[in-house]
């Protein structure tokens, strides 16, 4: 095997240590493991039985390099929904024997058919006829292709949900985006799929290396079926990276590992020559779903990632067109992730479960053919978590029964330019590292924009500044003309890499999708030019007004086997860049970070969940729910959240918030306060329990969220906009009328004066905090939820905030404040809930909790004599003189008895009352050392 570049080995090491997604356990499923013999292999399987049988079944296939253990969480989740679930390690992976055939019809696909036979013999599985179980199939990438191929070869499959997978494996690994005859521009991401493509050596090398150690102990770096990850994207990674220290299985060929000889030979040929031979083309063809899409009748949910340099949006586009042509129901979903961008969110996982519920059991809501896609905001939380929104169009454009694709034409400016291919193809541009797009985070697009434009190797063609914002939704197109430079010898073909970048007025460049379109163009030797239409990578990219789009044509790219013979080419772009546009309605947040996040992402997500969710329900014609006017603003019952590994963050939390109350949620770090707030705002799902607001259940996209304003986990705004513009932009994103924002009231609350017109990038922390609270109050929500609202405020600002919250609640609204400042809660709130170790340890009015102890204060004329008298009383301790007052812990002694003892001793008592502060009660409830 040719030696992999060090950077790819480094990528493998890094990818195997990326964090896995957390899932709640499913204790109700009965789990049975079994070895199943099939021709040429023994499969290691696990069966998950739901609480009630018979039930429809779901096969869950894993990603490349994974095993049945990789999809355990998804299998359990589907079993909890009531399905019989069968997961297995594909041949050559995990504990299964056999050799990897890349989903060969007579191997991996036949194995899955044999598993259907086993389901057909089980009384626990609903049967549609003799030998015909009612069954769905899902999987990601390698498992997703298996879903499609099995549905094409075995008509017993009743529904499928493939995730981030391919249509044509030859085109995926040897893409050519230049077509001499332009393909129809009827769908959002139709690829050129031209012949004689450019070898995607980076990804191919990573996957071949992963297969070398596929069966070795500890090398299973698996993936979840609906998390959208192969082993190389780092899901559930615990062992050494294959190819970076993982030994080949005992008895395996040291060069080919567990691959079949023909797969090994195909890779060796491609890696050596950089070309697609006839033999390799035939092998990849047999593993391509496109060979069977014309006979898939199982309703199909296609989920594809918008940041995926392995299997782009064009692969899902092809699957959708071909399957829908049969009259088969098809829904397409794009999410903000992929092989380079991370796992789908809970919304995607829920959509997969809902798809099977509808088509296998006839329950739930008809998912229809709506087309949801994610729009990243450009703001990121932590190192690599995007924030944004989900837009839903009526259908994927171009499919039967859906609308036509919209386009926008942008004129390009730029003269023909000469670009050179260096000898050996080095130095080469670096636009993406396989699987590391997500790990590089928001820097990846900007880094790749710089490194894809090496001097002398690239030409650029630029649009005018956009007059209005533009949402690129799919694959842009541009004509490209290539000619030889006179007198320069060179190869018969020009291998070029075309990309699109967004450039701001200050020169900041971002490569859209962190991806390039490789093209191979046959250039006549007589000096005449060759012209082709280039289909650029499919992306979803919001472009701000005032920015430009730049088309770059480069001669090298590290991820591909480009030209090595020195050459010079004259390249010219066509007059226009044609950009696809798919209008839709913003309905929800696409990705909300679970860990500490940028505040604007969380707040914007809450608003989109609220207003957009309500709008979507109205659009679908759902019956309006009449709220119960007597229901409290918030009621939480037996709420629990348990993460993967058994960690319980919240256990049996119950409390109620009444109208007009200002309730303080208190607890030391780790008490579970923020987890409760996240579940309240629909950002994460509880393991158990219920949350209702105004009598309506709370969850992601729940219409009742429209009545809640929130500020959770820190402020964050677009720094180049003013404070006022940030508030206006936020409100515009909710889709509600401007008149309902009550913007003047919010600006008055901010108390920033003329500074509200300054750029937020110049604000202090306290100014950002006040602006964030004003943002939460836009629309004057009936329930206001604030997490640490006084962070960064000075004492006068804290005092002003206290008054704002009191006035807000006095007007009939309700406020929930989570804070660690006990004195502020005591002075602001009239009710307190104290949490410790994930449980509620106290719930009551501030006066009740403060008055629950025996501490008292006496105002006297002779403090020292009074202290002596009190100290002699039985049980009284902790006596302290404080000026004209004496404090004492009475420890059960009636206060009246203490007063009587003082008066008898000749001490005049001016007043006597409870001494305890909220801090004292808090420390008694949670312990003095809770902060540690």
UniProtKB/TrEMBL annotation:
<dbReference type="InterPro" id="IPR003439">
    <property type="entry name" value="ABC_transporter-like_ATP-bd"/>
</dbReference>
<feature type="region of interest" description="Disordered">
    <location>
        <begin position="216"/>
        <end position="250"/>
    </location>
</feature>
<dbReference type="GO" id="GO:0016887">
    <property type="term" value="F:ATP hydrolysis activity"/>
</dbReference>
<dbReference type="InterPro" id="IPR029058">
    <property type="entry name" value="AB_hydrolase_fold"/>
</dbReference>
<keyword id="KW-0378">Hydrolase</keyword>
<feature type="domain" description="ABC transporter">
    <location>
        <begin position="634"/>
        <end position="862"/>
    </location>
</feature>
<dbReference type="GO" id="GO:0005524">
    <property type="term" value="F:ATP binding"/>
</dbReference>
<dbReference type="GO" id="GO:0008239">
    <property type="term" value="F:dipeptidyl-peptidase activity"/>
</dbReference>
<dbReference type="InterPro" id="IPR027417">
    <property type="entry name" value="P-loop_NTPase"/>
</dbReference>
<dbReference type="Pfam" id="PF08530">
    <property type="entry name" value="PepX_C"/>
</dbReference>
<dbReference type="InterPro" id="IPR013736">
    <property type="entry name" value="Xaa-Pro_dipept_C"/>
</dbReference>
<dbReference type="InterPro" id="IPR017871">
    <property type="entry name" value="ABC_transporter-like_CS"/>
</dbReference>
<feature type="signal peptide">
    <location>
        <begin position="1"/>
        <end position="22"/>
    </location>
</feature>
<comment type="similarity">
    <text>Belongs to the ABC transporter superfamily.</text>
</comment>
<keyword id="KW-0547">Nucleotide-binding</keyword>
<keyword id="KW-0732">Signal</keyword>
<dbReference type="InterPro" id="IPR008979">
    <property type="entry name" value="Galactose-bd-like_sf"/>
</dbReference>
<protein>
    <submittedName>
        <fullName>Alpha/beta fold hydrolase</fullName>
    </submittedName>
</protein>
<dbReference type="Pfam" id="PF02129">
    <property type="entry name" value="Peptidase_S15"/>
</dbReference>
<keyword id="KW-0813">Transport</keyword>
<feature type="compositionally biased region" description="Low complexity">
    <location>
        <begin position="217"/>
        <end position="250"/>
    </location>
</feature>
<dbReference type="InterPro" id="IPR000383">
    <property type="entry name" value="Xaa-Pro-like_dom"/>
</dbReference>
<keyword id="KW-0067">ATP-binding</keyword>
<dbReference type="InterPro" id="IPR003593">
    <property type="entry name" value="AAA+_ATPase"/>
</dbReference>
<dbReference type="Pfam" id="PF00005">
    <property type="entry name" value="ABC_tran"/>
</dbReference>
